[in-house]
Amino acid sequence: METWIDRTAARGQPFEDGDEFRLGFIWFRITDDHKGLRVTAPRVGDPALIYTDDCSEALRLVAMQRKMLERFGPDAGLCNCRQTVLIVRDLDECQTTFIDRLAGEMGDRSGWYIGAHDSKLDVGAPENLKLVSLWTIMSRRPEIAPYLLLPTGWQVSFASGAVVMHDRQVAQPISGAEGVGQLPRSA
Q1: How far apart are CA 124 and CA 50, in angstroms?
Q2: Residue 4, SS3?
């Protein structure tokens, strides 16, 4: 990121307060105030999209998502922290959740669905589903974070540990691929 910023500035494209750029899932922001010009990032784990000078957790999240893609081999699906996700309304009462990338991103929609194997609701009924902020739900369910750049057709079940699937078949990691780390639990 620093190299890109330096090259952009060297090409005569100076950054200004409020400029933003996306690196993977995260939107970073240029801030200029009494501390000077600097890069800020959303505070990972905070349900509100609040920017902070400490970019380390946001960069760690970007690296985790990249490692997940390398581990299973697909190209990244576009998705970002400002989009929404479709969830089953009783998700907060459920223990055995899953994520399913049903479509690619379209505007403010990520294409992700988060459901639960133990939901008591009929997910075929539209009134039992709702759109929520992907960032907010990720802060409440940090286990989903590493998988959010998987493309359409990928699923992850969290019923008994994370099981990654492609087209509803268990996906095998690429031989020699490293695992991903863990994000801190929500604040």
Answers
A1: 34
A2: helix
Q: For the whole model, what pTM was predicted? A: 0.86
For 138, half-sphere exposure in the C-beta direction (CA atoms, 13 angstrom radius) is 32
Place of tokens 């194997």: 117
Question: Up-side HSE of residue 85: CA atoms within 13 Å toward CB?
Answer: 26
Gap between the Cα atoms of 58 and 64, Å rounded: 10
The residue type found at 10 is A
Take residue 47 and report the two structure tokens written for it: 């349900």
Q: What is the pLDDT of residues 79-99, one digit of tens each?
A: 999 999 999 999 999 999 999
* 8-state DSSP, 106: B
Question: What whole-number distance in Å separates Cα of residue 32 and Cα of residue 24?
Answer: 23
Output the furthest CA–CA distance in the chain (Å, rounded): 57
β-bridge partners, 100: 113, 155
Report yes or no: 146 and 33 within 8 Å, Cβ to Cβ.
no
